[in-house]
Design brief:
Layout lengths: L7 H6 L4 E6 L8 H7 L9 H4 L2 H11 L3 E8 L5 H16 L2 E6 L13 E4 L3 E7 L5 E7 L2 H17 L1 E2 L6
Parallel strand pairs: 1-2, 2-3
Antiparallel strand pairs: 1-4, 3-7, 4-5, 5-6
Pfam family, one: DUF6879
Protein name: DUF6879 domain-containing protein
InterPro entries: DUF6879
């Protein structure tokens, strides 16, 4: 039986210790912020009001409660245009309190990873993201299966240990 997927903000509100996020795609489709970046528009990071979104506030509120939020991205090199933009936009994630690391796909050989991106909340609730081939989001599902939780947690930790901190990863 598939569990109903509550909003992301609700999942984080119920998180007490940790939330980890693994991203493994080189393209997640388009969005207005990416399109603006492609036109040459850049974020003025000194003007927080212009870029701070509800997502950032949700992350900041969660981190303020003592929850550790880590995000690892496995990327192909040379990186796609989407990843270039994402690397630039990651300043917002860091400012909100996330820890972010990057792992070149060429360094990901040697350990198994799940086929889908995911969030794992407190090690006991998994939100799996499903995407179409063009990078557009299709659906999410939740899992509490102990074997799947362990596989995803172990995969994330393997990647995290090998990955490069955002401040040191250059594209």
């Amino acid at each position: 039986m598939q569990l109903s997927v509550p909003p992301f903000s609700e999942l984080l509100a119920n998180t007490r210790e940790s939330a980890i996020h693994l991203e493994m795609r080189d393209d997640y489709g388009t969005n207005p912020r990416l399109e603006a970046w492609q036109r040459g528009e850049r974020v003025d990071w000194s003007d927080r009001e212009s870029w701070w979104h509800p997502f950032h506030q949700t992350i900041a509120d969660t981190v303020a409660r003592g929850v550790i939020i880590r995000r690892a991205r496995v990327v192909s090199e040379p990186v796609s245009e989407y990843i270039r933009w994402e690397h630039d936009a990651t300043h917002g994630n860091i400012a909100a309190g996330e820890e972010v690391r990057w792992l070149p796909r060429s360094q990901a050989t040697g350990f198994l990873v799940p086929a889908n991106d995911f969030w794992l909340f407190d090690g006991n609730l998994l939100r799996v993201h499903h995407f179409a081939g063009d990078g557009s989001h299709v659906t999410d599902e939740l899992s509490t299966d102990p074997d799947t939780l362990k596989l995803c947690a172990d995969a994330f930790e393997s990647i995290w240990q090998r990955a490069i901190s955002h401040s040191e990863y250059t594209i």
